Amino acid sequence: MPSFDITSEVDMVALRNAVEGANRKINGRYDFKGSDARVEQAEKLLTLHADSDFQLEQMLAILLPEMTAKKIDVRCLKHGDVQKVSGNKVKQELTVRVGIEQEQSKRIVKLIKDSKLKVQASIQGEAVRVSGAKRDLLQECIALVRKEITDYPLQYGNFRD
């Protein structure tokens, strides 16, 4: 019985490279000279430090294209609130979402079941396993999920025949 998995993965090495590239660009820019602007990474948490809200926006405008260039989907970032630190410095935390969250998994399974396709979907930890009688049904299922779920980065893999 053919099957595949729906997952949400982020290449952490590419993410680290994107953060380092963004820091290099920030250090080289004239409007950031003399400021304490930087992007820090601690596992799945990115922290942007800046001297003002405007600089924070500029840092995001540098970081997001760097991530896109490294083939990282920027929808995996969950933007936190902008926090005031000492003086007029600000920081913002970006959480990298890896794996499909439980409510998102339930939404995908419900979508597949409501579509009346002859496939079975089950939640397997941080992934959703879809199996069906024919490969064509699985391809229809992928097209359906791609069309409906646009707010979360999903990958389709582990195809079995």
| Distance linking N and C termini | 6 Å
Beta-strand percentage range: 25-35%
Tell me about the largest β-sheet.
4 strands, antiparallel
The CATH architecture of the largest domain would be: 2-Layer Sandwich
Name the strands of the widest sheet in spatial order. Answer: 6-7-1-8
| Oligomer kind | single chain
**SS-derived structural category:** alpha+beta
Total beta strand runs: 8
Q: Give the % helix.
A: 25-40%
Spell out the helices and strands N to C: EHEEHEEHEEHE
Structural description of this entry:
- This protein has 161 residues and is α+β, with helices and mostly antiparallel strands.
- It folds into two domains: 3-8 and 99-160, Alpha-Beta Plaits (2-Layer Sandwich); 12-96, YajQ-like, domain 2 (Alpha-Beta Plaits).
- Helix content is 38%, strand content 30%.
- It contains four helices and eight strands, in the order E-H-E-E-H-E-E-H-E-E-H-E.
- It has helices at 12-28, 53-69, 102-114, 135-148, and strands spanning 3-7, 38-42, 45-50, 77-84, 90-96, 119-124, 127-132, 155-160.
- The strands form two sheets. The chain has a four-stranded antiparallel beta sheet with strand order 6-7-1-8, covered by helices on one side. Strands 2-3-5-4 form a four-stranded antiparallel beta sheet.
- A hairpin with a 2-residue loop joins strand 6 (119-124) and strand 7 (127-132).
- It is elongated and about 65 Å long.
- The mean pLDDT is 88.
